[in-house]
Amino acid sequence: MIALRTGIIGCGKVTDIHAAALAVLDESDFVAIYSRSQSKADSYASKYNVKGYSDLEFMITNSKLDVVVICTPHPCHVEPAVQAAKLGVHVLVEKPLASSLKD
Fold it and tell me: 55, 83, 96, 101: which one has the fewest Cβ atoms less than 10 Å from its Cβ?
């Protein structure tokens, strides 16, 4: 079985739950984490032995990700999910997908 290269978008309160799972799943090669704050990304990255990024597109392309998990606050789900999908990666978003019908 080939493990999918996985990354996390957002360093919020649910990040540790997802990171801990991605780090031990045989199907996951957890390699990257993104935050708007490079220092926050680096803090989480060191905790899980992955690379931290503050540029989402660069993280996805540089890390050659297959899958991202969105761990941002609910109102901030749409933008990174759409950006990641446009870059050709699978996206896992906890509910809600968006915080408005327009999104």
Answer: 101
